[in-house]
Amino acid sequence: MLFLNFPELKLENWIESKITLHLFLQILGKIRLAYFPPQQHFWHAPLYVTANGITTGPLVHATGLFEIKLDLVKHKCIAIHSNGQSYGFAIEALSVSEFYQKTVALTQKMGIELVIYAKPYDPSRVRTEMSFIENTQARAYDKEYISRFWYILTQVYPILEQFKGAFVTKVSPVFLYWQTLDLGCSIYTGNEIKGVSSAVHGKVFQQTYSHEMFSIGFWVGDDYLPEPVFYVQANPDYPGLLKYPLFPQGARWLGEQEESLMGIFNYQQCIESLDPKQAIRDFFQSGYLAISQSANWFVEEVD
Length: 303
Known about the structure:
This protein is of the alpha+beta class. It has helices at 15-34, 96-109, 143-164, 198-201, 203-208, 267-271, 276-295; strands at residues 48-49, 53-55, 59-61, 64-71, 76-81, 86-90, 175-177, 182-192, 211-219, 229-235, 252-253, 262-266.
């Protein structure tokens, strides 16, 4: 597998394989959610990019630490335990049910009886409400495009790390969010947002969006926005945001007639530019400046 910088990734060319991968990663995400200590803003829930795939990171069990990862170079699921045990299986051509059952079997070999809520989170994102065990239909799995997606994550990851590293305030790790399948991070002002409650907004929203923040990342897209994009987003809403421009040319705020806190830069347009990585940095910086000025935040210098 050899890609030059940023490969093509039109969603229409691999949408069914994308949904397959998304469902597999939701299973890993639910395992992480169940076996990692709770963190502020639900930071214990997301997954992480690795040098060969995507992982839960080390998880906590009475028997020791364990980890489950998808190797998206060799297209295998691998489970390892701190006692030295390691098991794996090929993930190509598996149904969701088969993937789930094989993952459960791996952990059972390590002495772990998985207890998770085994149904999709936000079913509209993955076009099914069936439980993992019931989802027995044959699934598409295009190894080429799935590897492309992972490779793009490896290119975006250091850009996100570099950008957030310039801030002295609280910042999140760079996560892969398995609800929407986007790689991103958030920068916080430290100011709490009043009126956000679990009773009104739900537990996940209340903990995730309890403080002012600015988020950036790469989103592969889905039925809501059927194209991969880089994004910038603020929390909470700020008036007058649309009057601040985004760069490079072609970057835009979603929603022409209303204030929208998500700015996007189309992936295809980005990779056609002379310097895609610099274009991504310019986009993130323009989004930060637009949002910080609209919200009257103190603006930190970003090298």
